[in-house]
Amino acid sequence: MIRDGLLRRKVLISGAGIAGPALAFWLNRYGCAVTVVEKAGALRDGGYPIDVRGTALEVVRRMGILPRLRDAHIDLRRLTFLDGDGGEVASVNPYTLTGGVAGRDLEVRRGDLTGALYTAVRDDVEFLFNDSIDALDQSSGHGVDVTFRGGGRRTFDMVFGADGLHSRTREFLFGPEEQFHRYLGYCFAGFTMRNTFGLSHETMMWNAPGRAAALYAVGDNDDVHAFLNFAHPEPPFEAFRNPTAQRDLVAAAFADAGWQVPGMLAAMRDADDLFFDGVGQIRMPRWSRGRVALVGDAAYAPSFLTGQGSSLALVGAYMLAGSLADRDHAAGFAAYEHNTREFVTVNQEQVGEGDATLFPITARALEQRNDMLRHLSAMPSAEGRPAHSALTLPECMPMT
Q1: How confident is the model at residue 307 (pLDDT cuts 50, 70, 90)?
Q2: Terminus of the chain with fewer CB atoms < 10 Å: N or C?
Q3: Which pLDDT score, from 0 to 100, does residue 4 have?
Q4: What is residue 94's predicted lDDT score, i.e. its pLDDT?
Q5: CB under 8 Å to 82, separation ≥6 — which residues?
């Protein structure tokens, strides 16, 4: 049972993406007074499709949002691979390649998941949009004094960083990101563009050594998600905060590409929703310091190559809140790391530097990948990867 002395702890969560609202849900359930601060001016909708698989499905079921997510399921039906000239290499069932399980695992727009999480907590949790943490001070020993960018100051019993791959909370606690960032050798750009290709519930992916271009139609909409991925030996730090440099870097990488790539590059130049980043993971020896802890991508981003970022965020939020339900912050954070780290590690280790199956770097690796795809096209759907369900959730702690 939850000890009375731990009820109504005041906690702050930085980030209103996936891990933040999920953590807010469970901490509120366990009696905390929860505030979520988000630098964006409103909840972010849209975004690329994301997967909810394995153990994470049980988390959303316990939250009561599984039916809503089932209704939002995209039902991608075909994944077609093309060679450098635009000729078809293979067309496969997406689940065969991703390790998902048809009829069980979910693929939804990111905004549909964040919207469902927000709806589940908005009446019970305080949200501060268009603000962020400017400073953290734990020197009093009795809480965390927080200074907000907007000028406010408040004291919380605990603070949680759910602010993504480039977490400022992590930087406040542990220093620069570079010491924890494991770069995997690729950069990518994503944006939306007009669906002039007649695509529906399918993805088409063009490959050349070290380069990939994909068009992702999540339904019968007028738009498709465009995706450009390319090998790059070192993280292009100079481009991460410069949208013009990002567009130039991508355009240079695909300058001589065929298929629909020239039109994609033209659409990228005009896109108002361009997202660019390096492909990498966050690997940390510990996820907390004092009364502040990290969750989701801020602590253990697995990279989109694993398809497990959202699932790790959901599972991590559940495990963190449950670990604190009947413990103080020190014991709770220790239990969270002890009980969750193996699940995180086995999912992060699904991919290594430069060896992503979908994005071969050399001509030989690309031909081997294509041979594998031709074989897969004749195989039934997979039964799921063990890593996706490598953790059995503990039961929810009862409320007093």
Answers
A1: confident
A2: N
A3: 44
A4: 80
A5: 88, 89, 204, 205, 206, 207, 259
The residue assigned the tokens 């449950």 is 322
Residue 338 sits at φ, ψ, to 5 deg, of -60, -40
pTM above 0.85, yes or no: yes
* pLDDT at position 3: 45
Question: How much is the mean pLDDT over the chain?
Answer: 91
Please state which of the ranges 12-26, 101-115, 171-185 shows the lowest mean pLDDT: 101-115
Q: Give the pLDDT mean for 210-233.
A: 91
CA-CA distance, 268 to 276, in Å (whole number)? 11
8 contacts: CB under 8 Å, gap ≥ 6: 31, 32, 33
pLDDT at 185 over 50: yes
Matching residue, tokens 């290499």: 89
Model pLDDT, residue 75? 81
